[in-house]
Write a structure and sequence with these properties.
By secondary structure, the protein is an alpha+beta fold. A five-stranded mixed β-sheet has the order 2-1-5-3-4, with helices on one face. A hairpin with a 4-residue loop joins strand 3 and strand 4. The N and C termini lie far apart (33 Å).
Length: 68
C-alpha cells in the first residue's frame, strides 16, 4: 500500500504501522534511522499520532523532530 510521508509516497505492506512507513522513508532518503524514535508524527489534520498507529491506503503523515 502507498502512504505519503512528508510529501513523498512510500510503499509499505498491508497492515503497516507508522513506524514502518517512517523506516521506509528514512531508508529511501538515506537518513539516520536512529532518529526515528526522536520524531513526532502528525496526521493530515495536524493531530499527533503514535508510532504504533495503523495506516491505511493513501494516508498522509508528517513528522518533525521532538521539541526538548
Amino acid at each position: 500500500m502507498r502512504v505519503k510521508v512528508n510529501r513523498r509516497y512510500v510503499e509499505v505492506f498491508e497492515g503497516a504501522k507508522v513506524k514502518h512507513a517512517l523506516l521506509r522513508y528514512f531508508v529511501v532518503k538515506d537518513l539516520d534511522r536512529e532518529k526515528i524514535a526522536s520524531v513526532e508524527v502528525f496526521d493530515a489534520w495536524g493531530h499527533l499520532i503514535d508510532h504504533d498507529a495503523p495506516l491505511t491506503e493513501n494516508q498522509k503523515i508528517k513528522f518533525k523532530e521532538k521539541k526538548i
